[in-house]
Design brief:
The structure holds 3 protein chains of 3 kinds. Chain A is an alpha/beta fold. Chain A is built from 18 helices and 16 strands. In chain A, strands 1, 2, 7, 8, 9, 10 and 16 form a 7-stranded mixed β-sheet that branches. In chain A, strands 12-13-14-11-15 form a 5-stranded antiparallel β-sheet. In chain A, β3 and β4 form a beta hairpin. The longest helix of chain A is centred in the last third of the chain and has 22 residues. In chain B, the strands form 5 sheets. In chain B, strands 1, 2, 11, 12, 13, 14 and 20 form a 7-stranded mixed β-sheet that branches. A 7-stranded mixed β-sheet of chain B has the order 7-6-16-17-18-15-19, sandwiched between helices. In chain B, strands 3-4 form a two-stranded antiparallel ribbon. In chain B, a hairpin with a 4-residue loop joins β13 and β14. In chain B, α1 runs parallel beside α10, α1 runs parallel beside α16 and α3 packs across α4. In chain C, 20% of the residues lie in helices and 32% in strands. Chain C has 9 helices and 19 strands. Classes of the chains: A alpha/beta, B alpha/beta, C alpha+beta.
C-alpha cells in the first residue's frame, strides 16, 4: 500500500495528462502519473496490429498550438511539425474561405490558447473583455464580412459551400473535416462552425503523428521528474471529509494533495465518484453532455507501396456523406461508408516493413450499438470499407495483409470512452470552450475540492492537442501550489 | 402628375393588409394590390368544395399579435379566435396521449407513459415560460443594424443583453442551448418517453427543412409557450370562419381607415426610375404611382421577379440569391361526411377539438426527414391535423366536417424537378390519407372532396417561392438582423422608396401580423 | 377535469351545497352544507371527519431510507424513532422551499413521506447513490383525518380499544379487520388523528368512523372549514403563504423555510443536505423576511363598521387575498391568509413582513375596506399559533 504524499496525482496516460504532468513537475512539484494501459499515449499511441505492421494512433492530430509547443519546449524533446498533407488541389480551394474567415478562426484560436472564459455569467470585466474580442474581430473583418460570418456560423457546411462551389465532389471533400467531431452530417446546421473549428487547428501536423507527439511528451515528462506508472487501473477516488485525497487502484491507494483526471468527464465525475458525492444538478448537466461517437478507425496493412496523395477523402458527394450519417443515426452501418484515408506509412515508414504500407482510415459513419450487434456488423463494415478502397485502387483489396477495425462500440468498451467518441464528447456550439463539458466545471475545477479535470472533454475542445493539459496545469499551480 | 397614393402595397396577404391598415390609420392614402381573387395570401379561406370552407394553407392562429387585434379593433371587424382545446397524439399500438389545458389531467395522461415525465412536464413548462417572456419584446422590434449599428442599435442590443442578464445562469445556458441543440437532444434532458417527446419535438421543424435531430431546432419549442389568444398565454386557436377571417378582418379594418384594396390585380414589375421605386406596373399594363412601394411578397419575387437584378447592387443580389426557401411541406384539405373515428379514442370527444399530431416516434420523424433529403416525399410523413368544424359549425354543413392536414416532409426539389410535382400530386395525397387512416380506419370512405397542395402548387397558386410557407426558411442564419439579409433587416431595401413588410422580414412567418405592423411603423418613422 | 377520490361515493351524496374544488387533480369538498360555521364548530367542539386522499404519499424503503430522507428533507431522519412522525420542509439547492409535509417512521425500516403536491420526481433526482426505493402511493393509499375534542373517544370506539398515542406518534391498528396506520397529527392545531389505509378500504373506514361518531356529533368537514382552523393553528399553506420554488417565474417569489415561518423544521447541525449550505449562510444573517401572526384590532374594525352605520359583520370564512401591511406609512409586507376566528373572537392573519418589523408586539397597519373605502387599522404581531388548546398534546 503506497501512501506517499505526492503533490499531484495525474490519472490518464494521454497527451493532455503528459502535458499537464510536465508543466507541474517543472514548477518543482512532485508529480505521479498513472494509466491503465501498458504504454502511454492512449488512443494516440502506436501499436503493432499485425506482425510487422504498426498503427499510427486513432486520431489525425493537428499540431499543438505554438504557445503549447513553446511552453512544453517540445522541440527540445524531438518534436517536429510538418505541413499537413492536403488532398491534391484541395487546399487552395479552401483558401478563399479561410482568408475570409481568418479573424473568426483567429478568435477561436485565441479562446483555445487562453484559460476558460466565463461565457454564461460573466462579471462586468469579463463582459467588457468579451465585447472587446467581438469588436476586434469585427474591425479585422469589416462590418459586412462580420455580419456575414454571423450568418455563416449556424449554417450547414453544405449550404455554405454551395454558395461558392458547384462541383459536388469538391464540396464533399471540402466539407469532410467538419464532420469528424460532432454528431452531424454535411446538411446539419452548425457544421459551418465545426468546419472553422477544424481549420482552427492550423495547417500543420506533428511529424510522425500522434505517436511522435506522445514520445516527445513522455521524454519531456520524465526529464521533468514525473513518476510514471503504467498498467495501473483506477477503481475510484478516495474521499475524506468531502475532499478527494487520492485514488484507489489495483495496486493500492495512491494519495496526493491534488488529483487531476483526464478521463472522459462522466468517468471522472460519475463513475469514479460515489453517486452521492455528485450534486444532482451536476449529474443532470453531465447527463446532457453528448458523446455519441460516429467515427470508426481501421488500420489496413498492405504488402505493396502506395502511390499518390497521402490524404484522400472518399465520398462522391455531400449526399453520400449525409447518407452515411443517416445510416449511423438509425443504428445501422452505411452501404457506402465515407472515409478519411491516410497513408500512415508515408509519414512514418517504420510502420510497415520494406515494400509494405499502412493505411489509416477514419470511417464515417458508424453507430454505437450493443456488443452483440457490433460483432454482427463488424464483418459487413470491413467488407464495405474495402469496397470503397477498391474504388480508389483496384489492387488494394488484393494486397491486404491484415486489418484492424475499431468501432465506436469498441472505443466505448475497450478504451474507456463512454459513447465511443474519440474526442471525449461531441464538438458543438454549446459543448465548446468553457461550456465543455458543462457549466459547473469551470477552469478545470470540479465541485469536489482536490479533484481537477482536464482532457479532450474540457476547455477548449477541438483540434488543440496539449492545450487542455497545459492550461489545466496552469490553473492548478495558481490555485493549489 | 401628382402621385395618386402615399403607398402601394404589393400582395394582399395578412402582412400586406396589416401594413396597409396601420398606414391608413396614420392617415396615409394606401392601395393594396392582390393578384388572386381572394385576399389573405396563405391566410385564406376558400369554399373549394361547395358548402365547405377550407383554410387552404395556414390553418391555425397562434402568435397573432394582441396589439394588432386591439389597435385595429379586429374583433369589431369580425375576428373571433377559438382556442385549441388540446393536443392529441395517437400511436400505432393503439395508445394515445392528449395534452389538455388542465395541468392535472395532462399529468395523468402522461403518467400512463412515464411517471417521471408526468411530473416533469409542468416544470418544463415553467422553465420555458421563464425563457419565453423575454422573447416577446423581440417580436415587436426592428432588428438592430448588424452591419452599421448606430447608437439606437447599440441601445437595442443593450436592452436585449439586459433581458438576457435578467435570466439566472441556469436559464441563460438553456437559452443558448435552445439555439444550438436539436429539439430531441434538448428534450432528452427533461423527458424519457418517446411518446411525449415526439409530438413536442416536431414543433421544432414545422416549415423548415430540418429534422428533429438537427442542431438548432430546439428554440422553436419556445413558440408553443409564446402563443397568445385574447391575452392568455400559450394558446393556439382557430379563427371562426377559417384563417381567412383574420385577413378579412384586417382588410375591413384597413378599408375603414380609408385604404383601397384591389383583387385580381397582379403586379408584373416594379419600375425603378432614377434609382427610385415609385411605380408599379400591373400585368395589364396599368401604371400606378406612389411615394413608396411596399412589397408583401417574398424577397426573391420582389427583387428578382419584380425589380430586376439589373437594378440591384451585385452584393445585395448575391445575398438575396443566398436567402434560402426550400419548401418542405404540403397540405391536404378534406371535406368529410362524418367525423373520423380514432381507434385509440373512439367516437366524438374533446380530443378532436384541438390539433392531432401523427408523430409516432422520434425515429419515424427523423426517417421522414431523411427521405426528403434525397428528393422524395416521406413515405410515412408527419401530419398535423385539425378539424375546425368541430368547434366552428360555420365552415361545413351540419354533421359534416372540414379536415386540414399539414404534411411534412414534401420537398420542393423532388426527384425529377419541382415541375414534376403535379404528376405526383395524387400519389402524395394518397400517402397522406393512407398514413392517417392507419389511426382512423374508414377515413377514405368518408371523404367527399380532397384538395392536395404540393410545394409546387403553393408556389404557383400562392406565390410562395419553392413552396416555403414562411417566405424563406426560418433558420438561424436567416432570422432577426439577418432577415432577409444583414444590413437590410429593417424593412427598408437598398432600392430607394421600396420597402418590405411580410414574412421575409423580421420576425418571420406564421400568422403574426408583426412584420406588417413593424414595417408600417418603420416607414412612418422614416417620414413615409 | 378532476377525478374522484376513493371516498367520493361517501362524500358526494353528503355535499348538498355542491361546492367542490380541484385539489391536486381530485374533487375535494369545500363545504358539505351551505352553513360553514357548523363544520368549523364541529372541529372545535366535537369532531370533524375529512377526506385528505389527494395528499401525496411516497413510500421510502431500503437500507439508506433514513439517510436519503435526511438528505432530501430539512430534518435528520436518523433521529426519528419508529412509530413517530415529524414535520419536514423540502428545499432546493439554494435553500428555497419546494414543499412541506411529514415523514413517518413506519417501524419496519420503511418511511412514508407526505406532502401537499406531487414531489416524487423532485426527490428522485437526489436518489442516486442511495440504496432506496421510492414508490408513489398517492393513488393507492387513502387518507382520512378525524379532528376535534371528541376525536379520541370516537376513534377508540371505532377501534374497540384504547389509543394511547402521544402527539406525533403513530401506530398500526386494525379497524374491523382493516389495517390502518393512525398518526396523531393534523392540520387543525387541535386534538386529532390522521388515518391511512388502502384505497379500497377507505369507504369501509369512513362508514365505521361515522357510525362510531354519531353519538359524539361527528360531522364530515370540508376544506373551507379546515382553512379557518389551520390559520388559527398558525399553519402555512403552500401556494398561499409561500410558493414552491421550481414553479416561481421570478426569484422574489421564493421563500426559505426561515422566511416562511417553518425554520423550526430545519436541523442544521448535521451532515450536509440539499440546501444546507445556503440555509446555514442565511441563519447567520438577520432575517430579511418573516412569516408572522397578526392580530387585527377588532375594536377599530367595529368602530369602522359603526361609523357607516353597520353592525360589525365579519364573514366567518378564511380569506386568501393578499393585503398590504404597513409600518408607519411604509409598506413592509403583506397578509397571505386571514380569517375571523370564532373561537378566539378575533381577526387574525398570517403575514410576510420585513424581518425587522416581525418582532412580536410590533404595531403595524393593515388595509381594511369598508363600504368601498380603504382604511388602515392597527394590527399587532403575535406569536403563533393563535389557538393552542392543551388537549392538542394531552
Amino acid at each position: 500500500m503506497t501512501e506517499e504524499r505526492t503533490d499531484l496525482l495525474l490519472v490518464g496516460g494521454g497527451i493532455e495528462a503528459l502535458a499537464a504532468a510536465t508543466i507541474v513537475a517543472r514548477a518543482g512539484r512532485s508529480v505521479r502519473l498513472i494509466c491503465s494501459e501498458a504504454s502511454l499515449g492512449e488512443i494516440d499511441a502506436s501499436w503493432e496490429f499485425h506482425p510487422g505492421y504498426r498503427s499510427a494512433g486513432l486520431r489525425c492530430l493537428s499540431a499543438p498550438r505554438p504557445a503549447v509547443v513553446a511552453k512544453l519546449r517540445l522541440e527540445d524533446f524531438g518534436y517536429r511539425s510538418r505541413l499537413a498533407p492536403g488532398a491534391d488541389g484541395l487546399r487552395p480551394m479552401a483558401d478563399p474561405l479561410l482568408d475570409e474567415m481568418a479573424p473568426i478562426i483567429a478568435t477561436i484560436q485565441e479562446f483555445a490558447d487562453g484559460a476558460p472564459r466565463e461565457l454564461i455569467d460573466p462579471s462586468f470585466l469579463e463582459m467588457l473583455r468579451l465585447g472587446g474580442t467581438v469588436r476586434r474581430t469585427r474591425r479585422a473583418m469589416g462590418n459586412t464580412a462580420f455580419a456575414d460570418a454571423l450568418r455563416v456560423l449556424p449554417m450547414s457546411i453544405e449550404d455554405w459551400l454551395t454558395e461558392r462551389f458547384d462541383d459536388r465532389r469538391v464540396r464533399a471533400d471540402l466539407a469532410a473535416p467538419a464532420l469528424f467531431g460532432g454528431w452531424v452530417g454535411p446538411l446539419s446546421p452548425s457544421t459551418a462552425f465545426l468546419w472553422l473549428l477544424a481549420h482552427a487547428g492550423g495547417s500543420h501536423e506533428p511529424a510522425g503523428g500522434g505517436p511522435a507527439l506522445v514520445s516527445a511528451l513522455e521524454r519531456a515528462a520524465r526529464e521533468a521528474g514525473v513518476t510514471i506508472e503504467t498498467s495501473t487501473s483506477v477503481d475510484g477516488w478516495i474521499i475524506e471529509q468531502g475532499r478527494v485525497v487520492g485514488a484507489s487502484t489495483d495496486g493500492g491507494e495512491l494519495r496526493a494533495k491534488q488529483l487531476l483526471s483526464t478521463a472522459h468527464p462522466s468517468i471522472t465525475l460519475l463513475e469514479r465518484l460515489g453517486a452521492r458525492e455528485v450534486p444532482a444538478a451536476l449529474r443532470e448537466d453531465l447527463g446532457a453532455y453528448r458523446s455519441r461517437g460516429l467515427v470508426a478507425v481501421m488500420h489496413v496493412a498492405l504488402d505493396c507501396l502506395v502511390e499518390g496523395p497521402e490524404e484522400r477523402w472518399i465520398g462522391d458527394s455531400p449526399l453520400d456523406w449525409e447518407r452515411a450519417f443517416d445510416a449511423a443515426k438509425h443504428g445501422t452501418i452505411p452501404e457506402r461508408p465515407c472515409l478519411r484515408l491516410r497513408v500512415a506509412s508515408a509519414d512514418d515508414p517504420t510502420l510497415a516493413p520494406e515494400g509494405g504500407s499502412v493505411l489509416k482510415l477514419q470511417v464515417f459513419a458508424v453507430p454505437v450499438v450493443g456488443l452483440d450487434e457490433a460483432d454482427q456488423q463488424r464483418e459487413t463494415l470491413e467488407a464495405r470499407v474495402l469496397e470503397q478502397l477498391a474504388q480508389v485502387d483496384e489492387n488494394w483489396p488484393g494486397a491486404v495483409v491484415a486489418s484492424q477495425l475499431i468501432t465506436p462500440t469498441d472505443l466505448e468498451h475497450d478504451h474507456h470512452l463512454p459513447g465511443g467518441h474519440l474526442e471525449h464528447g461531441e464538438l458543438a456550439l454549446d459543448q465548446i470552450f468553457s461550456l465543455r463539458p458543462c457549466v459547473g466545471i469551470g477552469s478545470y475545477r470540479t465541485p469536489i475540492p482536490g479533484l481537477w479535470i482536464a482532457g479532450a472533454g474540457t476547455h477548449p475542445g477541438g483540434p488543440f492537442p496539449g492545450s487542455s493539459g497545459v492550461l489545466a496545469a496552469g490553473q492548478i499551480l495558481d490555485a493549489a501550489f | 402628375m401628382a402621385t395618386a397614393y402615399d403607398q402601394v402595397i404589393i400582395g394582399g396577404g395578412h402582412n400586406g393588409l396589416t401594413c396597409a391598415a396601420y398606414l391608413a390609420r396614420a392617415g396615409r392614402k394606401v392601395l393594396v394590390l392582390e393578384a388572386r381573387h381572394v385576399l389573405g395570401g396563405a391566410a385564406v379561406t376558400e369554399e373549394v368544395f361547395p358548402g365547405f370552407k377550407y383554410s387552404v394553407c395556414s390553418y391555425v392562429v397562434s402568435l397573432l399579435r394582441p396589439e394588432i387585434i386591439r389597435e385595429l379593433e379586429l374583433t369589431r371587424h369580425g375576428l373571433e379566435l377559438i382556442p385549441l382545446e388540446c393536443s392529441f397524439s395517437p400511436y400505432p399500438d393503439g395508445s394515445s396521449l392528449v395534452r389538455w389545458p388542465d395541468q392535472e389531467q395532462t399529468r395523468r395522461e402522461i403518467a400512463r407513459f412515464s411517471r417521471r415525465d408526468a411530473e416533469t412536464y409542468p416544470l418544463f413548462g415553467d422553465a420555458m415560460m421563464r425563457l419565453a417572456r423575454f422573447v416577446r419584446p423581440i417580436l415587436e422590434m426592428s432588428p438592430p443594424d448588424a452591419v452599421d449599428p448606430g447608437l439606437g442599435d447599440l441601445l437595442d442590443l443593450l436592452k436585449l443583453g439586459r433581458s438576457f442578464r435578467h435570466l439566472d445562469p441556469v436559464d441563460r445556458l438553456r437559452k443558448i442551448q435552445m439555439f444550438t441543440m436539436s429539439a430531441v437532444d434538448f428534450l432528452d434532458r427533461w423527458f424519457e418517453s418517446d411518446a411525449l417527446k415526439a409530438p413536442m419535438a416536431v414543433s421544432g421543424i414545422i416549415g423548415t427543412f430540418l429534422g428533429v435531430r438537427s442542431p438548432g431546432t430546439a428554440y422553436v419549442l419556445l413558440h408553443h409557450y409564446m402563443g397568445e389568444i385574447d391575452g392568455a398565454s400559450r394558446s393556439w386557436g382557430f379563427a371562426r370562419g377559417g384563417t381567412g377571417a383574420v385577413s378579412c378582418a384586417i382588410a375591413d379594418a384597413a378599408r375603414r381607415f380609408g385604404a383601397e384594396i384591389r383583387t385580381e390585380a397582379p403586379v408584373a414589375r416594379i419600375d425603378v426610375r432614377n434609382g427610385s421605386a415609385r411605380t408599379v406596373v400591373l400585368e395589364d399594363g396599368t401604371e400606378i404611382s406612389a411615394r413608396q412601394i411596399v412589397s408583401a411578397v417574398d424577397p426573391r419575387r420582389t427583387f428578382f421577379g419584380m425589380v430586376g437584378r439589373e437594378h440591384l447592387d451585385p452584393d445585395f443580389a448575391t445575398s438575396i440569391d443566398r436567402f434560402k426557401y426550400r419548401g418542405s411541406s404540403g397540405k391536404v384539405n378534406l371535406a368529410l361526411d362524418r367525423l373520423p373515428n380514432f381507434t385509440s379514442r373512439p367516437g366524438d370527444g374533446p380530443h378532436l377539438r384541438g390539433d392531432i399530431a401523427i408523430a409516432p416516434s422520434i425515429d419515424a420523424l427523423e426517417l421522414a426527414y431523411d427521405e426528403a433529403k434525397y428528393g422524395r416525399w416521406s413515405s410515412r410523413p408527419y401530419l398535423n391535423v385539425v378539424i375546425p368544424s368541430v368547434v366552428d359549425p360555420s365552415i361545413a354543413p351540419p354533421g359534416k366536417h372540414v379536415m386540414s392536414i399539414f404534411v411534412q416532409y414534401a420537398p420542393y426539389q423532388i426527384e425529377g424537378g419541382p415541375e414534376s410535382w403535379p404528376q405526383h400530386r395524387e400519389a402524395f395525397g394518397d400517402t397522406v390519407v393512407e398514413t392517417l387512416e392507419e389511426y382512423c380506419p374508414g377515413l377514405s370512405d368518408s371523404i367527399l372532396h380532397r384538395q392536395v397542395l404540393t410545394p409546387w402548387d403553393l408556389e404557383q397558386e400562392f406565390g410562395l417561392t419553392e413552396g416555403n410557407i414562411f417566405h424563406g426558411e426560418l433558420s438561424l442564419e436567416q432570422l432577426f438582423f439577418l432577415r432577409p439579409t444583414a444590413g437590410w433587416a429593417r424593412y427598408k431595401t437598398p432600392v430607394k422608396d421600396l420597402w418590405m413588410c411580410a414574412s421575409g422580414t423580421h420576425p418571420g412567418g406564421g400568422v403574426m401580423g408583426a412584420p406588417g405592423r413593424n414595417a408600417a411603423r418603420a416607414l412612418l418613422k422614416a417620414g413615409g | 377535469m378532476p377525478i374522484p377520490t376513493p371516498l367520493h361515493d361517501r362524500t358526494a351524496p353528503l355535499c348538498t351545497s355542491l361546492q367542490w374544488k380541484d385539489w391536486a387533480g381530485f374533487h375535494a369538498v369545500c363545504r358539505y352544507g351551505s352553513h360553514l360555521e357548523a363544520e368549523y364548530h364541529a372541529i372545535r367542539q366535537s369532531a370533524g371527519l375529512l377526506d385528505l386522499s389527494p395528499l401525496t404519499k411516497i413510500a421510502v424503503a431500503g437500507r439508506d431510507a433514513a439517510a436519503f430522507l435526511s438528505f432530501v428533507t430539512s430534518r435528520d431522519i436518523h433521529r426519528l424513532r419508529p412509530a413517530r412522525v415529524r414535520y419536514v420542509a423540502i428545499c432546493d439547492e439554494a435553500g428555497k422551499l419546494v414543499d412541506d409535509g411529514t415523514v413517518m417512521n413506519l417501524g419496519d425500516g420503511s418511511y412514508r413521506l407526505t406532502a401537499a403536491s406531487p414531489i416524487w420526481r423532485w426527490i428522485d433526482r437526489f436518489s442516486a447513490g442511495f440504496d432506496v426505493s421510492l414508490v408513489d402511493e398517492s393513488d393507492s393509499i387513502a387518507s382520512l383525518a378525524i379532528q376535534g375534542p371528541r376525536s379520541r373517544a370516537i376513534l377508540e370506539q371505532a377501534v374497540g380499544d384504547e389509543i394511547p398515542l402521544r402527539y406525533f406518534q403513530l401506530a398500526t391498528m386494525s379497524l374491523d379487520g382493516i389495517p390502518v396506520e393512525i398518526s396523531r397529527t393534523g392540520y387543525t392545531g387541535d386534538l386529532g388523528y390522521e388515518l391511512w389505509c388502502k384505497a379500497e378500504h377507505s369507504t369501509a373506514l369512513w362508514d365505521r368512523l361515522m357510525e362510531a361518531g354519531k353519538p359524539h356529533r361527528l360531522l364530515p368537514v370540508g376544506l373551507d372549514a379546515l382553512d379557518i382552523v389551520r390559520i388559527e393553528a398558525g399553519f402555512v399553506l403552500q401556494g398561499i403563504d409561500y410558493y414552491s420554488a421550481p414553479t416561481c417565474l421570478i426569484e422574489s417569489r421564493k421563500s426559505s423555510p426561515f422566511e416562511a415561518g417553518i425554520g423550526f423544521a430545519v436541523d442544521l447541525d448535521r451532515d450536509s443536505f440539499v440546501g444546507s449550505e445556503a440555509l446555514e449562510r442565511e441563519k447567520r444573517m438577520p432575517a430579511r423576511w418573516k412569516l408572522v401572526g397578526l392580530e387585527l384590532s377588532l375594536p377599530d374594525i367595529e368602530e369602522l363598521y359603526a361609523s357607516v352605520g353597520l353592525p360589525p359583520a365579519l364573514p366567518i370564512e378564511a380569506c386568501r387575498t393578499s393585503r398590504p401591511v404597513h409600518l408607519r406609512g411604509r409598506q413592509v409586507g403583506y397578509i397571505t391568509s386571514s380569517t375571523f376566528s370564532p373561537i378566539l373572537k378575533s381577526a387574525i392573519a398570517l403575514a410576510t413582513v420585513e424581518g425587522s418589523a416581525g418582532e412580536p408586539g410590533t404595531h403595524l397597519e393593515v388595509e381594511f375596506t369598508i363600504e368601498h373605502v380603504h382604511h388602515q387599522i392597527p394590527a399587532t404581531v403575535v406569536e403563533r399559533p393563535f389557538f393552542d388548546p392543551p388537549r392538542k398534546r394531552s
